[in-house]
Batch of 3 targets.
Target 1
Amino acid sequence: MSTSFAPSLAAQTLDAPVTEPAASPALAARSGRFHHPELDGLRFFAFLAVFLDHSILSGSGLDPFLQRNSLMAWPLTLLRCSHAGVELFFVLSSYLITELLLRERQARGTVAIGQFYARRCLRIWPLYYSFLAVTFVLRRWLMPAGTFDSAYLPWFLLFVGNWPMSLGGLSPCWEVSPLWSISVEEQFYLVCPLLLKRLRPRWLMAAAVGCLILPNLVRYGMVANGGNNALVYNNTFCRLDAFALGALIALALKGAAPTFSRTVRWLIGAGGLLLIVAAVRNFETTQIPRWADLAMYPLVSLGAALLLLATLQPQGAATGLCARPLLVRLGRISYGLYVFHMVAFLVIGIVPGLPQGIVGSLLKTTASFGITVALASLSYRFLEHPFLKLKERFTYISSRPLKG
């Protein structure tokens, strides 16, 4: 995210060792390391959807083309699919975490909760807290009028920053606002291993199906009581269907990967993309959502799940666009790309003399992307990577590429 290894004595103290059970036929495919580089490539496209929506459409002059009667309306709707990018991140995270923990349970007979939390802390916390600290200090020093309000800081420090955005309808400063989705993911990470440790596969399946139904009931209940878009969009309970679909894919595949032909993969991927565009185009929520607008959420989640199924291939046999080395490398640093992309927009925004309109927007977008990649690469190399190496001490099923 090296082959699995025997954990150190220090790691074992976090969870008592168990006797390794006989392999169950249903989980027989879950053995050895687990690495799918094509999913890194897909993760990059999830980031790209968010990036394009936050950049090109901001003052670019493209909005008139997005009207329903425009010839280019449907293709250009792809540029406003940040919602789909976030959903795809959620589906991917849920699939990967569920699959890795199921493999761990198959190999060891249990899920080591302490080790799992240690791995997540080592992966998420160094960049997250460094970014929050630097942003908080710089905002107070350089832009006192646009301070990152200290009232928001405790919420984000505890990974519940999405809740004041949902309940209050307010946002923190520009560059911190995307971190709401990391809060939602961390809340998922808190609960997921507890369920996977305790529940049998059929009850896990039932819980996932329940998490497909619950968010629709919550969303409709909120709209019935006059809830606004922020209340729905940033609410953890309204995002459970994306996590449920990722978990259902892991449970249904039972450790294997689809063996679709290339044509079938393209058809599934195109169907997922078309479903996302149609949902965003026809049901995009306004400030006060209509009943029909709520259809966007489950449809986009389903489209993201189809993209995952179209991309996932047997280990060691990945081909196609998402498996290309450049996209895999960019996907590997996608966490940093997501965290830093708003900073890049701020930097480019203060550069004088850039042209206006579509040409200027394209120049700003290209420069912002370059800055984002540079910042994420530096972060991965000097901040994240040392902790990722330490993370291996708490790992039973490796999800990192083999060295060399």
Target 2
Amino acid sequence: MPRHALRAGTVIVGDGSTLDDCTIGIEDGWIVEVTPGGPDGDYEEVLDLTDRVVMPGLIDAHVHLMYTGEPEDLDLTGLSDEYLTLRCAEMARRALAVGVTTVADVAAKGNTTFALRNAIRDGVTLGPRVYACGSMLAVTGGRATDGKQSGSIIEVDGPVEARKRTRELLLYHHADLIKLAATGALSSPHTGARDPQLTVEEMRAATEEAHKVGRPVHAHCYGEQGITNALDAGVDVIVHGQSLTDEHIERMLETGTALAPTLTVYRAAEHTEADDPIEQFRDERNRPSSSAGVLEETEPNFRRALDAGVTMVMGTDSGMPYTRYGDNTHDPVYMVDWGMSESEAIRAATLDAAASLNVADELGSIEEGKRADLLVLNENPLDGIETLLDPDALERIVLNGRFVEDLLWT
């Protein structure tokens, strides 16, 4: 695409600051200048957006592209990897359509999301930037369904095996992050959500291998002991995080460990036609007693972490029951509803989300030297975060410096 520039009325940088009347210069998909007023450089085209708001593309740091969000869709039996890869592409495209220019897939079957990541990167298909972990590491049986190993799980027992399988993901598949199951899950019918699973030693072995090559580690955690184990292992992001104690929060502040609270999945009843879908889903799966109270704990848990200053990261858990692609932009809205400012929520969905993936040097803010993934809006979400839900407010999406509508036909 020709060297071009956007003359923006307001720029939401992504780091909590804003700029008025400035030029964003773009070349080969990268931002080459952010200058007050008119451009410093020479451009073949300067687009007048002086009555528009430009912000970074949103980053959803926790999705499951293999799933559609339909409650009956957790069973992938009979679906080939080839079919799932194509379906992943469609789910990713739905996220892109609402302004999510980057997603992190955090548990997938086989090579499905690795293949999609590579196809998008190489221009074979259109979609948001994908960061993929491949399969999640869990204990034997930790995510089994009907007595069978889940297709999106690698079962490990002991630190030697955890280290080996992490190396395989990193070195054979170039995994962008590693995902660990520190506890059970609400979606796994026979395990208690708060019950610890992977040990500190197992998670530490995986974390050491990931950190050797600069890859972050995200840990699925409910329950006090699971969170403690994950922090002891040195993970970078606590996902979900219900049951945070004051000690946990203090440790997270000391180490810079982020929290991905995945609010959208817990507030699914508010963006779906079902009366109370998560409660219904939980009841139908006959949850163990240790799973009780997770939903009720979500809001006070989030508010305590927020008040203490824990870094928050946008992650919707899209693909889980009733959490559909295209609803991704509800997450920052829920963050504001529970106490964040608009500016803080946008940072959680841009720069801090990028940092959780170790890519803040390239993504998450509008700065010289970063990739040109941008949104053009006719309303300012800093004046009301619900603007992100309005499809009429989102006028254009810029991905790698090019308008998405142009990419559809090239």
Target 3
Amino acid sequence: MRRRTITAGLVGSSLTLWAASPLIGNSAPTAAELGKKIESTQGKVEFRKGKEKVLTRDIATYSGRVAKLESRLKDLNARQGTIEQDLTAKRNALNATQADLRDERARLVRLQRRLRDARGALETRLVDQYKAGRTDMISVLVEADGFSQLIERGEYLSRLRKKDRVVIDLVADAKKEATTTEKKLDTLERSQQKVTSAIQARRDEIARVKGNVAEVESTVRDARNDKRALLSKVKVERKDLEEDLSAMEAQQAKISGALRGALPAGAIKKGSGQLIYPMNGTFTSPFGFRWGRLHAGIDIAAPIGTPIRAADGGRVAIAGVVSGYGNYTCIQHSASLSTCYGHQSSIAVKVGQTVTKGQIIGLCGNTGHSTGPHLHFETRVNGNPQNPMGYL
């Protein structure tokens, strides 16, 4: 999980959020700034929640379209299968018709051969009759316009034996039947070819439509996958923001709890000097040497949570933990004069912030090297400690 700068700055602290160096530390956000950050983060979280709803709705819409397209593809596949079966059946029927046509043509060839054989036999018979002196046959041949008329003339047929008539009748019928069958099969073949072509066209059209539907389905599926990827990204962003928000809200709760526990600030106490007294309480230790070392300020005892005021207006130069001083704040009032406040339970300002005289900058505490809750107050000129009583 990524670590955001704001999260790192918020976890593991109470009112003082930053670990300072022995001299100067980083600044902590004020309650107002923290509130703005919380509000901003809440807005980002809500924006992503709204985006998640839109994306979820879009994904559902795409999924619906994919389902419909898949259903249509299924129907088209079924139709294509039916048409393929129909086409196969028609092709089989056409093949059968073509086989029948080949059989009939072969039969016609056989019949035509028999017809030629019969004609030859008849001609031979006529010649034989002529040679035998049956001259009445010549008149039949001379008067006939052709073979067809010859076999139709009753006076000739009456002269032939029964066997001759059977052969001629068979040939005539076969020729007629072969001609009729050939015409019938030719018509049937053309019809079958037409039906087969129509079925082929239907199959090709369904294949084309199926291809178009499959392409659209693929496009919709890709769009849905893109939406899903974006939704996952937005969810991760929203989760990270919610983690940041939880950390900020927890910190805000600590600040609120500390402020609720703060004691009344009381009236501002003024002396004869430039500065006001930073806190109402009991004077317990003066400026000067004690135990062989300089006590660089004065101590004012008060219950933990008593508000501390800025002794004068200026810019916050230090706001953080400093060794020995605990939570420590220094305010630069002029080019040379500054005041410092040690052992605070919490700091309410940050480095670079401008404060006014009397503004609450923290709460009395017992942090650092302290024997009890009190404020260690210093005045420094060009960084060197001076007796605060000369300025109060």
